[in-house]
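Lab channel / #folding
Pinned by the channel admin:
"Please post every new chain as: sequence first, then the structure tokens as a reply. Keep commentary short and put observations after the output so the thread stays searchable."

First post following the new format, from NK:
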Amino acid sequence: MAAFNRFGRALTSAAKRVYARTQLENELYGLDDRSLSDIGVSRGMIPAIAREAVPAGEVGDLFAEFSRLVVNGLLRPALDWNRRRKARATLLSLDDRLLADIGLARHEIDAHVARLSGAINGPLPVAIAAMEEDVTAPLKAWSAARATVKELSRLTDRQLMDIGVIRGDIAELADGLAETGLAAANNNHRAPKAA
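Reply from TO:
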């Protein structure tokens, strides 16, 4: 539940900032041109003024909280459930004599697994623990690729030729950059090898 609470707080904070910025823009747009010139503002400057007055905050914070939400709110409970299921199946596969040797009766298995759930859960596997930071890396890479396509598409054919790109290769180039960024993000979060 803590992961849900943290993500909810980050989302609420982001929404409040967007709302405050929109309110400021609406108030400034509501002024006539003379009032705006009296305070030294033109209509074209209003969005920039609103962004400066109410900063957007760190998008990375929202992404990080979303990653923690996915790992701690979804993956960890699913992994814990699977571990309990396997422990229960292992105990059920034992015959009555073996169960008696470890001090259990067949009807006590469910209660025993429930009591052991904390010990069974244990730490997350390294691959899932690493996802806590970069579960949104594919989304970030896709966003970066989209931004690259958008920027390169604005250039003229001559400008593209100057940087060694032809218009037909823009999407492929952006995808390559996104994959490179994703690979770098995965390498940064990889667990260190034991000495």
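NK: The first helix runs from residue 2 to 30.
TO: also worth noting, Residues 189-195 have pLDDT under 50 and may be disordered.
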